[in-house]
Amino acid sequence: MIRTVLLWLLLLCAPLRAEELPALYSVTGVAADDVLNLRERPDSGSAIIGRLAPDASGVEVAAFADDWAVINVDGVAAYAARRFLTREDGPDWASLQRPIFCSGTEPFWSLALDPSTASARFSTPGQPDPKPLAIDDLWSGNAWTASAAVSLPVGLAVLRRQDCSDGMSDQQFGIAVDVFLQDSDGLRLVGCCGLSPG
Q1: Nearest to 123 by CA among 137, 152, 103, 144
Q2: What is the pLDDT of residues 138-149, one digit of tens each?
Q3: Whether the model pTM is above 0.85
């Protein structure tokens, strides 16, 4: 009962706007013998810090900065020209119909959600290779709020659309998460999530 009340309070406090990011994109409009450059800053004169193949797919875009898409590559946020990216078909992340990967620090922890198998994996320094956990219940987002929640045997994870930094890398994420543990004196873990592992 307490988890349900907490969930509703957190979902009602979320911003009432529809967001489509993060989402998966494909590279389009790049010649077969060329690449899509990933830049250090949203500027075509900025240093190239990575490249995407002309047929790359499953590229997670965390945010947009004007005509640029923010993409994590090799542990840093990079910028790709938005005009060369097309959103892939599929549900928004808040529908909880695709895998989501979360992590945080202090203490280090990770949570991998796989709604297709109704399972999750939660790891901490004390349990680095956990057994799969059954997802007890899902509360997916809707057109009015970019929030969602997952009930697990260990607690409740509340996800929301928000620019997020893990504090340890130069990556940028599009989903923030709070994990409320039920058997650790109400410990709250804070972190970031994405649609791609690692």
Answers
A1: 103
A2: 999 876 678 999
A3: no
